[in-house]
């Protein structure tokens, strides 16, 4: 059947001609690994909060260690919440086989991406600040045996947890950066040409 130019123009655009950033965002939030990563993130945040709140005001050598752990956990819980919203939004507004994108879904996705990016930048900056506080206490001879020596005292369990979790956070951030760079390099090697695919589909219909 021969279609007129007006019919072709009015036909909803298939998902194959979505902008690259939108295709990648939908693909990212469609992956099932979120259901593995999110529980792990919640557990990590809970560990931060447990030690920071349990031993609140028990690290006079560097009181900001508790604040660092609480804020760090809160930021990552927000990132996890945004990821959950992203997964739900993708499944509801961008189901497989749908040929027309919902504008509300795109708006929600943009808000999630921008908010997540800002939170990740803050998280990395806050991680550096936490490193300064933790390592400065270690350099200044932190000890957990004499609470009366407030110039050097920090509860042992709290400082040990802060130090170990700090290293773990650096490893996690390193893995995230590595994966992002790896995906970027791989995507650069495999260019996608959505307009060409769409034109081929139109030619087959004529």
Could you characterize what this model shows?
This protein is mainly α and 206 residues long. The protein is 73% helix and 0% strand.
Number of strands: 0
Q: Structural class, judged by helices and strands?
A: mainly alpha
Mean pLDDT: 82
Oligomer: single chain
Strand content: under 5%
Note the run of SSEs as H and E.
HHHHHHH
Spans with pLDDT under 50 lasting ≥5 residues? 1-13, 192-205
Number of helices: 7
Shape call: elongated
The biggest sheet amounts to: none
* N-end to C-end Cα span: 6 Å
Radius of gyration: 24 Å
User: What helical percentage do the residues reach?
Assistant: over 70%
List the helices and strands and how they pair.
Blueprint: H1 5-10, H2 20-29, H3 34-54, H4 64-93, H5 103-139, H6 156-189, H7 194-205
Structural descriptors:
206 residues, mainly alpha, 7 helices, disordered C terminus
Summarize this structure briefly.
With 206 residues, the protein is an all-alpha fold. The chain contains 7 helices and no strands.
């Amino acid at each position: 059947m021969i279609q007129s130019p007006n019919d072709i123009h009015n036909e909803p655009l298939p998902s194959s001609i979505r902008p690259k950033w939108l295709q990648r965002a939908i693909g990212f939030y469609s992956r099932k690994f979120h259901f593995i990563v999110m529980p792990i993130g919640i557990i990590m945040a809970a560990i931060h909060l447990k030690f920071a709140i349990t031993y609140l005001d028990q690290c006079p050598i560097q009181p900001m260690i508790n604040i660092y752990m609480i804020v760090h956990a809160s930021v990552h819980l927000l990132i996890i919440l945004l990821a959950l919203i992203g997964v739900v939004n993708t499944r509801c507004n961008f189901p497989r086989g749908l040929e027309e994108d919902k504008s509300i879904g795109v708006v929600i996705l943009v808000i999630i991406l921008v908010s997540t990016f800002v939170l990740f930048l803050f998280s990395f900056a806050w991680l550096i600040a936490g490193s300064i506080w933790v390592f400065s206490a270690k350099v200044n001879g932190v000890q957990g045996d004499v609470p009366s020596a407030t110039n050097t005292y920090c509860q042992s369990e709290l400082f040990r947890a802060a130090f170990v979790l700090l290293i773990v956070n650096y490893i996690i951030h390193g893995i995230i950066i590595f994966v992002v760079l790896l995906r970027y390099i791989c995507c650069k090697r495999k260019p996608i040409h959505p307009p060409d695919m769409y034109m081929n589909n139109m030619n087959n219909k004529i």
